[in-house]
Protein: guanylate cyclase
Amino acid sequence: MGEILEHKLYHEFHFEMKDLHHENINPLVGFFHDSGMFAIVTEFCSRRSLEDILTNQDVKLDWMFKSSLLLDLIKGMKYLHHREFAHGRLKSRNCVVDGRFVLKVTDYGFNDILETLRLSQEEPSAEGDVYSFAIIMQEVMVRGTPFCMMDLPAKGKREFKTFNKGKKTNIIDSMLRMLEQYSSNLEDLIRERAEELEIEKQKTEKLLTQMLPPSVAESLKKGCTVEPEGFDLVTLYFSDIVGFTTISAMSEPIEVVDLLNDLYTLFDAIIGSHDVYKVETIGDAYMVASGLPKRNGMRHAAEIANMSLDILSSVGTFKMRHMPEVPVRIRIGLHSGNNQQLKQEKTFP
Structure:
């Protein structure tokens, strides 16, 4: 039987198949017959069969992928039918997928071989292929087994076109579009993150300059070592709230916070119009210096004195939110020079 089979294959079958060339048809490479074993050799597709893809839950299939695979199947079967080839054994296992996710129809045109080997006596037909396609389409769309939608009403094959709005879909083009969109979105995301980073950097620099002198902050940002520096012509200002312990005992914690925040916001606005530098605020203590870190000659005492008078004037009209009837008084102390010249401490109403 081997010699008869080989003669039939090479003279009636092989020459019909060798002229079939289509992107969605898995090409026939040849036959293998040795030691009683017969095999058909076709092109290898690394993604295996459509059935394998559908049953592998690790493979995520969105509608774009599904429609692309089904359109590949339609184009492959259309090519065969136009050349009067009926498949006869179409199923998801006979649809293979290559490394580019292109579906190719395989196991087509082997009916004479199957008859010779007495493995099939059925005559294939285009109608049977259409029926098989409908089953595969259902498998892909719902990712279920054949006939799992028996309870649902049947729908025509033309309706498939409406799912994709009549557009032709190629999975490689779609993937390229997805990559382009991803690249565009990534560029926008990087731009947004860069803007956010710049804003946060500005906030950090602003906070740093509020905590440290600008020259010191700049040196720290550059990674330089800040060397200690002495200043001889300097005037310091100290102040605290008279009776702060009593006020705190009569207030809620958040009310104390509001009091200090309101008062120091007022002070901060005043010192901005004088040549002074706020050194620190701890609790109700407020400390300001003039003559450092920027030297101003002999003007340091006058700058602090004028600032003190402005602060004193503003406190006279200041009201606590939670106890507006209670007056706020502050204690101010000044110290000027290198333990010399001026030292004044006085309680102001």
User: Anything to note?
Assistant: The domain at 235-348 is CATH 3.30.70.1230 (Alpha-Beta Plaits).
